[in-house]
Amino acid sequence: MNLKELYQEIILDHGKNPRNLRKTENFNKDAKGHNPLCGDKVHVFLKLNENKKIEDISFEGSGCAISMASASIMTDLVRDKEEKEAKDLIKDFLDMIKEKPELVTKSLSEDEKTKLMSLSGVKKYPMRVKCATLAWHTLISAITNSQEEINTEKFD
To answer: Is it the case that residue 155 has pLDDT exceeding 80?
Structure first.
């Protein structure tokens, strides 16, 4: 199996069987996001402890396979991370999906990097970048408690 096939398999798996598709019990931060062009909607729920560690994260929503796969992968990768570590991972992902060829983070295992890199192919399709980044921008909003619904038409 080549890398492209592996990436496609990861996206299809997470798109069809999203992990953490539920509402976190006793969440203390949340945010909603919407991609009007594709119709994707996501609501991210976080449970941060007193040390700002993500104890639990989940999402509810609907959308295309890329949007759902990205939200699923994101929730898998940021669970149990410190808030700062999660923010660094978000920045690294957004940089990679828009311009950089690789992830620079050191906080992920090789398997986790492969999972995240599976979304890298969308940069060839600018309209699909918004699908892949919606959940990540929504997570930033949840962490910062901005109370503003994320709309993909407002960011690049």
So the answer is: no
Are 73 and 139 within 8 A, CB to CB?
no
pLDDT digits 0-9 by tens, 33-54: 999 988 999 999 999 999 999 9
Q: Does domain 3-145 have CATH number 3.90.1010.10?
A: yes
Count other Cβ atoms within 10 Å, centred on residue 142. 25
Pair 123, 129: CB distance under 8 Å: yes
Taking the CB of residue 148, how many other CB atoms lie within 10 A of it? 12
d(CA 8, CA 120): 11
Which residues on neighbouring strands pair with residue 150, listed in sequence order?
33
From 146, 100, 129, select the one nearest 91 (Cα to Cα): 100
pTM for this prediction: 0.95
Domain boundaries, the chain: 3-145
Closest CA to 34 of 23, 42, 25, 44: 42
The SS3 call for residue 56 is: strand
Listed in sequence order, the DSSP H helices in 47-103 are 65-78, 83-98
